[in-house]
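Render 1-Cys peroxiredoxin in 3D.
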Amino acid sequence: MSIRLGDIAPDFEQDSSEGPIRFHEWLGSQWGILFSHPADFTPVCTTELGFTAKLKDEFAKRNVKAIALSVDPVDSHLKWIGDINETQNTAVNFPILADADRKVSELYDLIHPNANDTLTVRSLFVIDPNKKVRLTITYPASTGRNFHEILRVIDSLQLTDSHKVATPANWQDGDEVVIVPSLKDEDEIKQRFPKGYRAVKPYLRLTPQPNK
């Protein structure tokens, strides 16, 4: 099954390092990040899970919950968490799904035969409060994720959901944004963007970022 942007994220029940989880119920009305790892006790994943734990406050500001997945069992996860806490100087504060039966991996297409027929690829999904998939990223096993980019995309998604704007290349929170081309009524533009805008081209209109 291939998951595309805009699809409803598949629901599931699975065991985890924090007990059984029913995914949609666990998400509630929050945003979610679901990300997979090839296996426990792997070096890149150890750094990723440690860094995710350190982002707890950043996720909380954005109303985001994180959940990881590996095909190893719970007892393995718990031992690995001890290593993560020790080596990354943190405390893992989110669940790691124990997908020993590959149920979630198959739902989310996380096992790619041309990569490895037993280990999950390093994929990540951002899911909104309506349970829609808003971002998918798949990395090779050799490359750790850029979590600053993931936070940047969540900032963009939450901003553009609230305003008729899009975010340009390399946008960071607080930078100028693009007024969507479909918005043409000047009275509405003045109401929505009281600081005005500059038209680089008729289709490229930049305005200061509105408040979230």
